[in-house]
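User: I'm preparing a small set of examples for a lab meeting where we compare how different chains pack in three dimensions. I only have the primary sequence for this one, and I'd like the structure in token form so I can line it up with the others. Please keep the answer compact; I'll paste it straight into my notes.
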Amino acid sequence: MVAKEPPDSARRLIPPDADLARLREIARDCDACPLHERATQTVFGEGPRRARCMLIGEQPGDQEDRQGRPFVGPSGELLDWSLRKAGIARDEAYVTNVVKHFKWVPRGKARIHSKPSSLEIKACRPWLDEEIRQVRPEVVVCLGSTAAQALFGASFRVTKDRGRFLQSSLAPYVMATVHPSSLLRIEDQTARHEAIREFVRELRKIAEVLEPV
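Assistant: Understood. Below is the structure token output for the 213-residue chain.
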């Protein structure tokens, strides 16, 4: 079966030799897929130009869409806390998402997250490719199945391969783990706390790689 190609792609918007600041500016007007029609704004990645660690999530959430920054909602707060516990400074990492616009459905007055389609992910992928190419991180961490499958293929299972380093051309060290939002959805308090501890243990493996020689 031949994979469907996206009807449009952000690739046409990316000029040669544009730096991250320029890419962020251009991405504000990205119309490569329909998600821009309902999103408040594009949420581009942020962090140091030569960050040693890049964290990649699925897409912006409600608060990220409103504020224009990645991982500033409840899952972002948990990520920040977990990074601190693991010994990684958030402001020294580059944080981004596979998809740069918030996809949502209404539920009363709330805007509820909706998983992006494969075509939407493919249309947005050139932005992420450029971020990885320009930052050139030593470590790439995929947060959640959407990010991991976007980079490793639809057959990749985070439940099977989470928390260990994977062979990849993306970076010298690549790991996939859960998205912080999935931890917040665990209803049982004991189970949620243990899942968060496991998440921190995985991040500590990243911290060990990032330790100065």
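A couple of notes for your slides: The longest strand covers residues 53-57. Residues 19-210 form a domain with the Uracil-DNA Glycosylase, subunit E fold (CATH 3.40.470.10).

User: Perfect, thanks.
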